[in-house]
Design brief:
The chain contains four helices and ten strands. By secondary structure, it is an alpha+beta fold. It has two domains: about 80 residues, wza like domain (wza like fold, 2-Layer Sandwich), CATH 3.30.1950; about 70 residues, Roll (Outer membrane lipoprotein wza fold like), CATH 3.10.560.10. The strands form three sheets. A five-stranded mixed sheet has the order 7-6-10-8-9, with helices on one face. The chain has a three-stranded antiparallel sheet with strand order 2-1-5, covered by helices on one side. Strands 3-4 form a two-stranded antiparallel sheet. The radius of gyration is 23 Å and the shape is elongated.
């Protein structure tokens, strides 16, 4: 009986190890650590946290926050201005700088591990800053902020958004998208 249990346990461990190895080889095992790749038009900004990986150079894998000046600092190449660049543009910039005297044909991947915040104010139960998530809507942002108060006017919600160094105010509905640095303003109803 003990021999049979040992054999079953050994077979179970072999199957688990084989599955883990195939996940690792396919690149699926590490995705939760890497972060996400946002839509191609997403522009990096202050307080985004990114993970930079240089293939074949594990010692250069770095996770860094984009500074208030819009910069990141990486080994070998120093400070880079990444604010306003897409993930793809940031990858290309890093590859060019690494190829300039350090590495031959470097391959670089950049992932966002934490987006900058969305702000929810007004007639919600817990106004404040909340981390942005892909697919965030006005309703989801309000839910993260504890939901609407009894005084909320859900038909008059506004979003304040920076566009080319100017703030614009948009009238929105609950299904409209929310983006990083947006300020969702839920006004009080008249009655």
């Amino acid at each position: 009986m003990t021999c049979l249990l040992s054999l079953a346990l050994g077979l179970f461990l072999f199957v688990c190890a084989s599955s883990a190895a195939s996940l690792f080889e396919s690149g699926q095992a590490d995705q939760s650590v890497q972060g996400s790749t946002p839509n191609p038009g997403y522009k990096l900004g202050v307080n985004d946290i990114i993970r930079v990986q240089v293939f074949g150079e594990e010692g250069l894998t770095t996770e860094t926050r984009i500074s208030g000046e819009g910069r990141i600092v990486l080994p070998f190449i120093g400070a880079l201005n990444t604010q306003g660049l897409t993930v793809k543009e940031t990858e290309e910039l890093i590859m060019v700088r690494l190829a300039d005297g350090y590495f031959k044909n470097p391959r670089v991947s950049v992932y966002i591990t934490r987006y900058r915040s969305v702000f929810v104010s007004g007639e919600v139960k817990k106004p404040g800053a909340y981390p942005y998530e892909e697919g965030l809507t006005v309703l989801k942002a309000a839910t993260m902020a504890g939901g609407f108060t009894d005084k909320a006017s859900t038909g008059r919600i506004k979003i304040k958004r920076q566009k080319d160094k100017e703030e614009e105010t948009l009238s929105v509905i609950l299904q409209d998208p929310v983006f990083p640095d947006d300020i969702v303003v839920v006004p009080q109803s008249f009655f």
